[in-house]
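task queued by scheduler; priority normal; single chain, no ligands, no partner chains; default sampling; output format set to structure tokens
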Amino acid sequence: MSQLIIASQLDEDFNDVIRQRLAHTHPDARLIDVPSGVPSDLPTEVSILLARPINVRGYLAPDTPPPGWPYGLKWIQVVSSGIDFYPQWLFNGPPVSTSRGSAAENIAEFALAAIFAAAKRLPDIWVHDSQWNFTALTPLKGTTLGILGFGAIGRSLASKAHALGINVLALRQSQTPFEVEGVEAARDIHDLFARSDHLVLAAPLTGATRHIVNSAVLASAKPGLHLINIARGGLLDHGALLEALDSATIGLASLDVTDPEPLPEGHPFYTHPRVRLSPHTSAISTNSGHEIADSFLANLERYLNGLALQNQANVQRGY
């Protein structure tokens, strides 16, 4: 059997984690570093590609693949959950799997931190002199958390919220029952917005979900709603959100994702008093290297044993 050659677009420290793990399980395998961006001129002996997002920070891949694509590739795993950061042609060749779920706990914790920060008015209550003024802080117990999309992130977030005495209301695309006990199904997106105190967007971005949160949906919101987007900026009509913030229909928006990324200089979200903006960092943790390795190596075992890959990409579904 020929040597297993894996090409990875990940940073060197991430690749080192995978190499160390491979040394224990598949010492004959070799992982080589390749540049990020459009995969091109891969050696013919490379059979597996570990790919990072391509269409990011304003860059768009060409509509056609590079000459010779897909080279000798038999399988591609992308390190994101969604597949909207990649050109269509990437999915027209070898099987593509995603890293869906690998960062779910990190993202759920981030969303919960945003909820705590809003309810407990952090960091506004920190004092810097002797002029102390007491502020009534909002309890979380008994409030309602809305979740749009209910995959791994939604399940993790719902479990954590229930432990805090928060009611959970969710809406998902499929009719599949919620895997977390006690989650109530919203009738529709307007019902979800009307009943939530905090609402997390956790749905994939597809043609059907782009700007699913528009002016009509925002008008349905419970007054003072805290809207949290940790999924994709394109789910949300930014112009409509700005109007809803200015009119105080939406009390606060915590945005870890935007459209585009980064927002251009001078965008009103940078300075708006009702916006908390972070640089698409909720999925990244000090343990991300091992989380990505876990997802990839579990699928590698399935690939080598002729089993169906987990989390195979579905272009229509968006993940």
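post-processing summary
- Residues 104-277 form a domain with the Rossmann fold fold (CATH 3.40.50.720).
- The chain has two domains: 5-102+285-304, 104-277.
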